[in-house]
């Protein structure tokens, strides 16, 4: 048999991908497979395309993580400012009650209350979604063929909707939000 690429030369082997005969110059042993130069070029192009697709996916993930981090920072600032404002207005509004702390002390505490409100909102932004996704992934392939009275449906709704929200809130406030933030922050590095 003659070489597919050089018809004047004798072929020394067959390409395992396309079964073309090739001479010594046109065929190589690549990880135990004999490939002709055309298949090597196609394999190289396929690897390059896969590498480019993976790089594009990594870049998109980084950009999405950066956007999420920027949004969470804005959300924290807005919640903290609103919390401070509401706390200050509340301190001024309840001055007639003798059991309230002095106005100056209440106004000094308002920024700290605002920071607390900002943290809770920020932590819930990061912590509730992973708990919610984990909760619903348990029920993803489960069918619902339950016929019950309204009271049973009320219990089911509470279990399916309220429990993951409460669990997400607790997870968020007690460190889960910070963990999720740091995990996303590592994606941007």
Helix content range: 55-70%
Strand order of the largest sheet: 1-2
| Broad structural category | mainly alpha
Q: Which band does the percent of strand residues land in?
A: 5-15%
Question: How many E strands?
Answer: 4
Reported for the largest beta sheet, the result is:
2 strands, antiparallel
- Principal-axis shape: elongated
Give the termini separation: 55 Å
Describe the protein:
The protein is mostly helical and 189 residues long. It has a domain at 64-188. It has three helices and four strands, in the order E-E-E-E-H-H-H. The chain has helices spanning 37-93, 103-138, 150-188, and strands spanning 13-14, 21-22, 27-30, 33-36. A two-stranded antiparallel ribbon has the order 1-2. The longest helix has 57 residues, at 37-93. The chain starts with 12 loop residues before the first strand and ends with a helix. The mean pLDDT is 86.
Q: Briefly, what is this?
A:
70% of the residues lie in helices and 6% in strands. It has 189 residues and is mainly α.
Present the secondary structure layout.
Blueprint: E1 13-14, E2 21-22, E3 27-30, E4 33-36, H1 37-93, H2 103-138, H3 150-188
Antiparallel strand pairs: 1-2, 3-4
Helix pairs in contact: 1-2, 1-3, 2-3
Keywords:
mainly alpha; 189 residues; 6% strand; single chain; 3 helices; elongated; two-stranded antiparallel sheet
